[in-house]
TrEMBL record:
CDD domains: ABC_KpsT_Wzt. The lineage of its organism: Bacteria, Bacillati, Actinomycetota, Actinomycetes, Kitasatosporales. Keywords: ATP-binding, Nucleotide-binding, Transport. InterPro entries: AAA+_ATPase (IPR003593), ABC_transporter-like_ATP-bd (IPR003439), ABC_transporter-like_CS (IPR017871), ABC_transpr_TagH-like (IPR015860), Bact_Polysacc_Export_ATP-bd (IPR050683), P-loop_NTPase (IPR027417). Belongs to the ABC transporter superfamily. It comes from Streptomyces triticagri. GO terms for cellular component: membrane. The keyword Transmembrane helix does not apply. It holds the Pfam family ABC_tran. This is ABC transporter ATP-binding protein.
């Protein structure tokens, strides 16, 4: 199936251009696998040694698209189809093997750019994360309470003054999202963050994504929740086996994807 690039009705400027992008991971100490899983297991048991060589994983294969200011674009596809890899490449965290990615400004990958530290309290992490994103101390003072409220971390008690290592994975993801959302971004990349919160947090996040778009940003959202994609995105890129299967309006692409995966999901 060919990809049919969609473009927004207005003459918005492009924010991300991906041109024939290929991304290959190289895994040292893992030579090319041969034969069945049983054969591989007996090889391991027989030799009991690490295989030599490098295994190449061709995770993204010739993907091209142009994203425009004001768009919210969902990335969908079955497990291992290359969504997170593509997102990390747009963020500039992975090199392309072939092809090019051009971006306006510095895209922010929520959750990675704000690298939080386990031994520090939530409040210290808010300050450090916000400083790392380029906010001034003055701006942090103004926005601190909003960030904590947005995260919902303190809804059930004073958790923000406890070390991050005491947080559940959902609490961590929510705090990360809240810090990232405290600034406007030209290009904001979100990987599954919405799936981690409760319904109230999801609603707040979706509202914030709409606001970021209004402020002329472009938002990319990776999610396995078709509902989150439907509620948030007007355009969807469907990746399968590293290839772009479809690129178009959310309803059309999701309809095809749901046929492919055998029915509606969340
Ligand atoms: N660090 C890595 N080293 C080697 N291979 C990797 C690495 N990260 C991902 N891969 C491989 O690249 C392919 C694409 O993975 P990716 O995580 O981008 O998929 P995804 O669509 O985000 O999957 P999921 O929906 O399961 O999160 C998979 O085959 C995966 O095994």
């Amino acid at each position: 199936m060919t990809a049919s690039p969609s473009s927004p009705g207005t003459a918005s400027p492009p924010t991300v251009i991906a041109d024939g992008v290929h991304i290959v991971y190289r895994v040292p100490g893992a030579s090319a696998g041969r034969g069945s899983a049983t054969a591989a297991l007996s090889r391991i048991l027989r030799r009991g040694e690490r295989s030599r060589g490098v295994r190449e994983v061709h995770a993204v294969r010739g993907v091209s698209f142009t994203a425009y200011q004001g768009e919210a674009i969902g990335l969908i596809g079955t497990n291992g189809s290359g969504k997170s890899t593509l997102l990390r490449a747009v963020a500039g965290l992975l090199p392309t093997e072939r092809g090019r990615i051009l971006t306006r400004g510095r895209p922010s990958l929520m959750g990675v750019n704000a690298a939080l530290m386990d031994d520090l309290t939530g409040e210290r992490n808010v300050v450090l994360g916000a400083l790392a994103m380029g906010l001034t101390r003055e701006q942090i003072k103004e926005r601190y309470a909003d960030i904590v409220d947005f995260s919902g971390i303190n809804e059930k008690g004073d958790f923000i003054s406890l070390p991050m290592r005491t947080y559940s994975s959902g609490m961590r993801a929510r705090l990360r999202f809240s810090i990232g959302a405290a600034r406007d971004h030209d290009v904001l990349l979100i990987d599954e963050a919405l799936a981690t919160g409760d319904r109230a947090f999801q609603r707040r996040s979706e509202a914030r994504i709409h606001e970021l778009r209004r402020k002329a940003g472009t938002v990319f959202l990776v999610s396995h929740s078709n509902k989150s994609i439907r509620d948030t995105c007007d355009r969807v890129l469907w990746l399968e086996h590293g290839e772009l299967r479809l690129d178009g309006p959310t309803d059309e692409v999701l309809a095809e994807y749901e046929k492919f995966t055998g029915g509606k999901r969340r």
